[in-house]
Amino acid sequence: EKYVRTLGLNKQEWSTHSFRDNVMKDSAKQSPFVLKGSALTTPSVKSKSTKEVQRKQENMATLDEPKMSQKDKKTLKASKMSKKDNKRKFSTEDQKKDTVMRLQDSKRVKKKTLKTTNALEKINKMDTLAVTLQGYQPGTSRRLLYNWEVAGPWFEEVITRNAVSPKLPVSVLKHLQVKAEELLSREVSLYEKVRMNRNKSDAEWLKTVLSSGTLADKMAARALLIQESPVHNLATLNVLLNMATKKGKRESIQAVDTLKELWLTALLPPTRKLKEFNNRPFEELFSLSDAPLDKELMLWLFEDKLKKAYAQYVNTLQQLLQDPVATVRSKLVGNVFDLLLQRPEQEQLLLSLLVNKLGDPEAKVTSKATFFLLKLGQLREGSAGKRPKYRYLGHFYKLCLSIF
């Protein structure tokens, strides 16, 4: 209105005047009112900062919330502290688990390395042992390795008995067996020469008896030879075994009886079982000189052959126990009992043969078998306390339960 009065303009002229816009801008800066078109409006108030507004809202919210007691505050603090402690515990437990796993892994690695090193050492030892044994050659001395007149029983002359046997290659074992065969054959030939030179009359008499004597005389002569020196008379033992398998009952039963006496008196060791040639501790041969080494190798081969011969004898007993004649079966049951009682070799098979006779159709045979089995159950030690406590009672009861 001031500008209109000063300029002397009407309102209509003012609205169309070009100077109007500039005047309105200047007036808007000075006055609190702004003219938009023909209307006057108040300018917008400047908004306060957002942070101040948020603070006010938080203060209002805290005023509206109910106040917490000291107990509640303590419980909140305790819960927060327990959460922190649990986190710490979990972290320590995880660390412990990690350390335990690392220790276990390290132990496993150490065990594996030890196993590999031990295996390599064993392989190297076996290689050296195989090479040395492959080049073994027996001695060339013409003396007897086993002098039957001076030495004791053959099983007392064996030096190495309970050592662990290494697994050698088949070629090395065959080589050693061939050399042992050479030693044994040479030993037998030397024995015959020495025996002929010392007692010509006795040797000639035995030859005549074996060629033109009766059956009982032949059996007695062969038994004398085997008792004199079992190592040098394996051939005569094989002859008796062949006689035991013949069809003639009289000859076979006499051979079985003489063989039983020989097994108990001269052939089988009383406190241990026979061993095979392949299951021998060949490492111990290094500690022996030439002559004891040859003797040990020869005795190992003899024991292996003796084990096979005794297995053949037990098989013949098994066949003869099926004989249709009851007197033959009852006689052989007594032989089985004597062998089972006094020697540990083939004890399980002999015990099964004795138990099988409980089902024999003849009453005499069954009564004899039951008597022997009851006697075996009652006994705990052998004659003169030489044998240990009964080791096959468990097998005996198992077999009895399986039959009944």
Describe it:
By secondary structure, the protein is mainly α. It is 68% helix and 1% strand. The protein has 15 helices and two strands. A two-stranded antiparallel ribbon has the order 1-2. α5 (70-134) crosses α6. It is elongated, with a radius of gyration of 55 Å.
Compute the number of strand runs. 2
What share of residues is helical? 55-70%
Strand content bin: under 5%
The outline comes out as: elongated
Order of helices and strands: HHHEEHHHHHHHHHHHH
Low-confidence stretches: 28-48, 380-390
**Main structural class:** mainly alpha
Could you report the average pLDDT, rounded to the nearest whole number?
75
Helix segment tally: 15
Strand order of the largest sheet: 1-2
* Major sheet description: 2 strands, antiparallel
N- to C-terminal distance: 140 Å
Radius of gyration: 55 Å
Name a few traits of the molecule.
404 residues, mainly alpha, two-stranded antiparallel sheet, 15 helices
